[in-house]
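Hi there,

I know you've been waiting on this one. I reran it after we fixed the sequence typo, so this is the corrected version. Both the input and the resulting structure follow.
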Amino acid sequence: MIGVIAATLVGLWFYNTASRSGRPPVSWGVSGVVVYFLAALLWSLIVTPALKDSAIHNQSAMLIFIVRYAYIGVGLLVAGAVNAWLNKQTD
């Protein structure tokens, strides 16, 4: 649920920044959601299994929290970096 809310916020953020770069707002918003989900999916498939194995053996509350929610932060960071990078190129 939190991931869907984050994806919605990323889509709205990209939609609102489309005018700065001269891009169509709807397609730019959809592009932001796609970037977010791709980063989150890659994190979940590549990094999370190793962290999950460590969390099972360690039982650290912080590590379990990271395993559950780190994909959201990674998706937000990558979407923010892509938005900043692409908007910087048009300035």
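Quick highlight: The chain has one domain: 2-90.

Best,
R. S.
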